[in-house]
Request: fold
Amino acid sequence: MLRILIVDDHEVVRLGLRTLLSRNPEFVVVDEAGSVEEALEKTRQHRPDVVLMDIRLPGQNGVEGCRLIRSAFPNTHVIMLTSYAEDELLFEAISAGASGYVLKQVGGDDLVRAIQRIGQGEAMLDPAVTQRVLERVRQAARQEQAAAFTDLTEQELRVLGLVAEGRTNKEIARTLFLGEGTVRNYVSSILSKLNLTNRAEAAAYAVRHNLQEYLQEFG
Reply:
């Protein structure tokens, strides 16, 4: 039996959610709250398994409420319920420890399934926002990748790419139409900027930070 606390500042919404969830024999709605302060008090009183919380509440918003509940009651899962797929609030909610993020437009059966899954310890995002999460993760990865090479010039990046392929200075010089001495200077500069000691470390660094992918995307 999953014990659920409903948190929304609209009484009609709370009533609708209570009616829907009470139809399921696996759920018991232990109480309702209309603010973060009240939600904390009711969570302390009932220790629900799941808190179904509106993301927009008077005073402190649902994200802050989620953070406070998860900090004080780590065994309680929080599902953020919202009318809009707002990117910043979405990522703030995830960072605050929310186990789920569900749009209010979701069907009743889908909401029930989301609560069941989260009650079992899984995480759940509304399909409408999943793509946004994936894109943000990819964007963060691209930014981390770019930061790994931000101190290198375009020519140094080309030289590093060839070092990673195991090319000698002579081969690099021939490929880039440079003198061997110039290539040696580039390699020394690369090692210094990346705080590395030898070509093997430079090659490993390039592979670890996906230099070839970076060159294809930005080069």
